[in-house]
Amino acid sequence: MVQDLLIAVVAAAALGALYLAAAARVVRQYERGVVLRLGRLRDEVRPPGFTMVLPGFDRLRKVNMQIVTMPVPAQDGITRDNVTVRVDAVIYFKVVDPASAVVEVEDYRFAVSQMAQTSLRSIIGKSDLDDLLSNREKLNQGLELMIDSPAVGWGVQIDRVEIKDVSLPETMKRSMARQAEADRERRARVINADAELQASKKLAEAASEMSAQPAALQLRLLQTVVAVAAEKNSTLVLPFPVELLRFLERAQQGAPGAPEVARPPDSGTPDPRPAAASEDAGAPDPRPAAASGPYVRH
Fold this sequence. Notes:
Blueprint: H1 2-23, E1 24-27, E2 31-37, E3 40-46, E4 49-52, E5 58-64, E6 68-78, E7 84-95, H2 98-103, H3 108-126, H4 129-134, H5 136-151, E8 156-167, H6 170-212, H7 214-229, E9 238-239, H8 242-254, H9 275-279, E10 295-296
Antiparallel strand pairs: 1-4, 2-3, 2-5, 6-7, 7-8, 9-10
């Protein structure tokens, strides 16, 4: 009798251990448990920790509540200004309603991925190339709204969408490089022209000041000579005004006892000099160098 009772207790303990092993479940901190009893959804969502289910009657589905980072495959499209581009993105989302994520959609990850790809193609077709390259923040917000609208019914919240890269054809890259180079050259020419305008205004003001004081022009000429001489040149050419040389010639002719200076003959009168003097091509010219533009050499 005692032996039979002992066997019954051991059998009951074994059955209890088997039941406990079959009914015991552990839900992690970042998960929530959704129970389906005989195919029907239980209203209670199991919190993290140890929980029990009815073996054979209940089915526990664990839903991850962490933020999921999902890359969106690169999509080929044509922008609104007829440029072929290839754009890829990344999407961040999380489950906020575990029951809806299990019941409303078969696989919420696959659904979000497909929705992100179709929305990305739609954004490419509605945008210009300049917007894709320089105004990505606005496109990211529009892409997030397009994906978040259907995802709300699946118990999924879209946290953020980012466009990672925009690939352009090689011909378009070369065209954009030429455009950027031409724009930089245009700005350089505008800056140079502005500098020339400002310099011309300053020179006009300087000329106006020098015209009031004639000695200032001579001082400026001497400053220029000093600046040229500072370059250590071996030859310095300093031209004299022809009017100054004519003044010296007239002063020499008017002096008492001064020899008569030969003047060049007119075109209509013959040369009074003897022919022997003109035949000698190697003889130096005794005339002063006033008519040939003299210069002083140091």
